[in-house]
Write a structure and sequence with these properties.
α3 runs antiparallel to α8. Helix content is 59%, strand content 6%. The longest helix is centred in the N-terminal third of the chain and has 36 residues. It has 2 domains: 60 residues, 2-Layer Sandwich (Dna Ligase, domain 1), CATH 3.30.1490; 235 residues, no CATH class. About 7% of the residues have low confidence. It contains 10 helices and 4 strands; from the N terminus they run ββαββααααααααα. It has 318 residues and is mainly alpha-helical.
């Protein structure tokens, strides 16, 4: 068998992906992207065989040399299922976070406009519920991002990565380890799949640091504001604190979802190489008179500053 021959492999939906060199498919097996016994077929042929049969057949490597998929949480989750979970979690979280942000901003604007730090529009319970749901969604997103990486490229466990974000103040430190750590692991995996093309994602590291700064400042101001308002509100300065907290919250949320979206764009192709091809095929099969947005558009993250500016420049009815 000529090792330069190209092959297709079957994805979770039974669709052929490729053609790729056999060694490339084996790299996917090494990384845990596809099972080591994934079915492959020579380009132009119709004889499907398990990948490991080629290595048992005397091609220079034994089937036992192909490492098994690393044990990890949700190890039974297939690549296509993991990518779908990332998409659904991202979309649901950002929509809930937007509504929660809008409700909280309306309350903050009303408090400053009325001069009453305890001003309420009557939807405090709803705003709190949606805020908690958005936090839960963001934690779930981080968990899924970590388990998307092969175990050898994770700087921490998925539980620690997500759980430490729930610790007040410590989370402001943790984001400076978490976000760059995610970028580093993604870059290492990318370089295994596309050697020499690391410059294409070099911009992610400074983006991660900027996002961490915004999130850390928002977390600190949130804690300071909570402690400050535990007793009697200060006679002066509370209006500025409310505005700055809202501004930091807006910047943190917008940057977080932009950063997460950028990371998802890269990871979805590494986790499930056939995902892009399936999306392209669906787009081609969609009639021209039917609108079909891209798989990650719109991101909605740009709406956070629009909502913030819109609410703070309007005058609420008392």
């Amino acid at each position: 068998m000529d090792r330069a021959t190209h092959f297709y492999y079957g994805d979770d939906s039974g669709n052929p992906v490729g053609p790729l060199a056999l060694d490339e498919i084996r790299k996917f097996a090494d990384a845990g992207v596809v099972p080591r016994d994934v079915m492959v077929c020579e380009a132009g042929g119709d004889n499907w065989r398990s990948l490991d049969t080629f290595y048992r057949g005397g091609m220079g490597t034994r089937a036992s040399d192909i490492p098994s998929t690393p044990a990890r949480p949700l190890a039974e989750m297939r690549p296509a299922t993991l990518v779908l979970s990332l998409k659904i979690t991202y979309t649901a979280t950002i929509l809930v976070a937007l509504v929660a942000f809008a409700l909280n901003t309306v309350t903050d604007r009303g408090a400053v406009q009325s001069g009453d730090p305890y001003y309420s529009e009557g939807f405090d319970a709803l705003a709190m519920t949606l805020t908690l749901l958005s936090i839960a969604g963001s934690v779930a997103m981080i968990y899924l991002l970590v388990i998307s990486l092969p175990e050898r490229h994770r700087f921490t466990t998925p539980v620690k990565a997500a759980g430490f974000l729930l610790i007040p103040l410590f989370a402001s430190y943790w984001v400076f380890r978490l976000l760059p750590g995610l970028v580093k692991g993604t870059r290492q995996w990318w370089m295994e799949s596309a050697p020499g093309k690391s410059r294409r994602i070099a911009w992610l590291m400074p983006f991660a640091v900027i996002t961490a700064v915004f999130m850390a400042v928002a977390g600190i101001l949130d804690v300071v504001g909570g402690v400050w308002f535990l007793g009697d509100p200060p006679a002066k300065g509370w209006e500025g604190l409310i505005f700055l907290s809202g501004l930091a919250y807006m910047l943190g949320e917008s940057a977080f979802f932009h950063f997460t979206l950028s990371l998802l764009h890269i990871l979805r192709g590494l986790v499930d190489p056939g995902d892009y091809e399936r999306e392209a095929l669906k787009a081609k099969q969609t009639p021209f008179w039917k609108f079909r947005p891209g798989p990650w558009s719109p991101s909605y993250a740009f709406l956070f500053p629009i909502v913030f500016i819109g609410i703070w420049t309007m005058r609420l009815t008392q």
